[in-house]
Write the structure tokens for this entry.
Amino acid sequence: MGNERETVLLLRDVDQSYGARRVLERVSVRVGAGGCVALLGENGSGKSTLLRLAAGREEPAAGSVLFRGECLAEDHPRRRAEVATVLDQAAHYPDLTVREHLMLVALAHGRDRRAKPVVDDVLDAHRLAGHAEAYPDELSSGQRQLMALATTEVRPYSLLLLDEPEQRLDAGARRELAGRLKAARHRGAAVLLATHDSALADAVADTQLALTDGRLVDNR
């Protein structure tokens, strides 16, 4: 799990501020193909900001964010094709069912004729088969989180960015999430996630980074 892996994501000496408040200070993170970095830290430590920078949703005040060696905005075609995210509160269309959401994502990423079997498998794997025709607002908060995570599984990606993916999931669903993240690594995807669940981090990450007040304070 060493540095010989191809670098997929590199944040180098990144600073970020909102007005007078500095949120990140000289943070560097590298994620290689088939690797997983887990970001640990209290709420407000800068984890979510770092993920938004990694996703291209924000530009850093200083430093650089490189995806496969290039600075690419979130809407760049290569980023849209290769980067899957579940950040903040996942957006959804209130008039689309769970199945329709997943079909939309699958078709948008070229699944075509394979979209239906892929979606059916992902619905089963995320315990959503019995809610496939429900609308998002009819789901529990845990089921909406599973739907958001399911959207990443119906499409290809080389980089997966997750902000507290374990939130609102029961113990069984967390174990299943860990299994899917390990499978993603086995396929060669790079994974960067923020989490409060040390068991999840231990299960899936080859590197754990702790943030305190916007600075890296630990590297395991």
